[in-house]
What does this fold into?
Amino acid sequence: MKSLEEVLRTWEAVIGLEIHAELTTLTTKMFCGCKLEFGAAPNTHTCPVCLGLPGALPVPNKAAIESIVLAGLATNCDIEKRSMFYRKNYMYPDMAKNFQTTQGPIAFCMRGHLDLNMTGAASRERIDIDDLEAGQTRGNVTKTQDGYCAHVGITRIHMEEDAGKMIHIGGDEGRISGATHSLVDYNRAGTPLIELVTEPDLRTPEEARAFMQNLRRIYLAIGISDCSMEEGSLRCDGNISLRRRGEKTFGTKTELKNMNSFKNLHDGLAFEICRQAEVLENGGVIHQETRHWDPSAKCTIVMRVKETADDYRLFPEPDLAPYDLTDEFIESVRAKMPELPDAKVNRFKNDYALSTYDAESLVNDIRLSSLFENCMAYQASPAQAKGVANILINEVALLFADDESHLPAAISPERISSLVQMLQEETISSKQGKEVFAAMVAEDKDPRIIVDERNMKQVSDTGAIEGVVDEVISSHPDEAARYKEGNVKLMGFFVGECMKRMRGAGNPKLINEIVARKLNE
Ligand SMILES: [Zn+2]
It folds into this structure.
């Protein structure tokens, strides 16, 4: 199979996402007063409404409506003042009502968008904008200094409810095949879900990942869900099709499921793009089907083939009147809006002169952005912001095993600040800084104590450095001669040799200056 880079030179990928979020911060279900509690004993949180007993009447959860309106306002959607609930009919034991209550053509939130700042390596998958100047726009993309900005449309965000949970007994790993019987737990039935559907505006797996990261950080900021991709409270399906560059009509799409981490989302889409290209280049056709990403086998597998559209016989829910939102209600929700991630990125760039990449990296992880703000509030001056950001992005971020891991107790704003201070005062070199950081986490000690204990102070004594530089130059006369003949790249060799002799403790700026001076003498 060809690489993604190669495929994207001849083919354009068209990607749309469908993203489900469970409103985990609510206390009760969507249409009844049953408690939402993960891990409770089976069937302890049920009632006639969520069990669909005859005559039971649903009542919408106002807090859930507030959550979806907040999500809509945060993603630039129009809020529809009048929308309705519908019945999506299907018969399966996990849904005792035999239908799912969902929304029809008009949802609470319509016509939104997110702007994705693509920088660094993430921007390189997009190959068709290299000829643009910064500030120029083509299609939904505007070129920026350090990458580009992609404007991605959101078709809608609608409200629906989750089904119960089936447990298959006697089969392999709880699978239905080979099972002797199945059990059902209705505690999850009726859990409020919101589903966001994007326009087919995404063109690379990196853009899909960026969209998901942006949405996750928004949902976390507005506090509507814990957004755990691992536990499934945030789930993402992708629709992918290919067309030759320059073509306008869409190709046949496949739907990809089971992308339960940002890496799986990127890798699953990348594989599917390459697979489709291979089929098409060999004269084959793409079938409209649902596929499953298998991260360990690193391929996608067919789950089911769609011959015709599913017929759920969607019809208006007779037990729920059309839902009318008043201006006062919408404004009261808007008043609760906290600072959104994009605004935070801009504030970090303006107040602390951070690059877009640094600001986005911090804001993408709420643990890093709040640590950054605590560091800056503690004692660090704005001049130290870049140093703090570097440590957070290059060191602290690596300590998180997954989205749920906590900051190690050894890391505090005051310790980060004193580490940054020592680096900026050149008490220690950046190489020593990495060692101090690792020791700080491993030994739970203040960085200044570590530097004292290990006698790690950086050598900034000009005389001592000159001595080492003289030694290095005299023991490499051939290289020194080649340098003088014009091979200036050898400068790095001499600096490296000096650093080695000083065991990383030499001030790199001084070493550079002295090596340059001595070689040109
Ligand atoms: Zn209930």
Remarks:
- The pocket of zinc ion is lined by residues 29, 32, 34, 46-47, 49-50, 190 (CB under 6 Å).
- The CA atoms of residues 86 and 317 lie 5 Å apart.
